[in-house]
Fold:
Amino acid sequence: MTFFWGKNSEILFSGWPGTRGGMYALALLLVFALSFLVEWLNHCRLIRPGLARTALHAARVGLAYLVMLAVMSFNGGVLIAAVVGHAVGFLLFGSSVFWTAPLQPIDNDGRKGDLPPMAC
Structure:
């Protein structure tokens, strides 16, 4: 398998986005949004520990796997959309570029978000 460039590919579902350029652009936007959402879930502070936190972790892992499967279409545009989505998400939510002071951790263990960082 090698990376290729072009709008004629299958991303996530059989026959989608097809051969139309508009549907390919929509698929790239979806991959960007999914990777952006994964970064937001990595750095958000929505809930306290408990069962809801487990559900949030499951959603984050599921979305991350969807992004991974989209990249495994070996389409260069999809790879770029995923990387840019993660980068923009980290820039807005994980870096201190737009914050005047560093985020204060919610938990006593020093974590800044609801979930621990994803690790391989």
